[in-house]
Amino acid sequence: MRMTPRRLAIGMSLWIPNLFSGIRVKRFASDWTSATVELHVNVFTRNYVRTAFGGSMSAMTDPYFFMLVRHQLGRDHVVWDTRGEIEFLKPGRGMLTAHFAVPREKVHELRERARGGARVLEWFETEITDGEGDVVARVRREVYVREKRREAPAT
Questions:
Q1: Burial (CB count <10 Å: 0-12, 13-18, 19+), residue 99
Q2: Which string of b and e fits 33-42 if b means at least 16 CB within 10 Å?
Q3: I need a labelling partner for 121 at 20 to 30 A (CA). Which of 6, 76, 111, 146 fits?
Q4: Is the pLDDT of residue 18 over 90?
């Protein structure tokens, strides 16, 4: 069964760490260039002062740049999420949203840079916004890309 953007969005929303963390994947674009993820701040996802728990906000941004790059590059490349940074700007309340975008041009550039097995590290950025559209946090995620080594045929 082929992995479609819709199947992946449903699967990621039902995946136990996301399901119990209030994280819902609203959509992956049909061409794998973008994704939208929401975090419902509730009794399980808030901190001591009743605002969004920072770990939940970090978790809602964890794999999505990696997934967008991986699906666009295909099986000929190794793709990993290597690290992340988050800057908290305002208390998060209610419904929080993050939009992820990886344009085809960026993936083409990564493919070229990784040609021949070169290791490529690339930072991607997004913002987490609240229901009013205010920025709650800025997030950076680093993605590792390398072209897979091809096995030489036995002689």
A1: middle
A2: bbbbbbbebe
A3: 6
A4: no
Q: CA-to-CA distance for 108 and 88, rounded, in angstroms?
A: 32
* SS3 state at 113: helix
Cβ partners under 8 Å of residue 118, min gap 6: 146, 147
pTM of the model as a whole: 0.89
Q: Where do the H-state alpha helices sit in the chain?
A: 5-14, 16-19, 54-59, 64-73, 104-114
Among left, alpha and beta (phi > 0; psi -120 to 50; other), residue 117 is left
Q: Which of 47, 130, 49 is nearest to 90 (CA)?
A: 130
3 state DSSP class of 110: helix
Which residues contact residue 71 at a Cβ distance below 8 angstroms, ignoring those fewer than 6 apart? 3, 32
Q: 84: Cβ–Cβ under 8 A, 6 or more apart, which residues? A: 58, 61, 62, 139, 140, 141, 142
For 100-136, how does the pLDDT look when each residue is reduced to its tens digit (9 = 90+)? 999 999 999 999 999 998 999 999 999 999 999 999 9
Q: Cα(43)–Cα(93) distance, rounded to whole angstroms?
A: 11
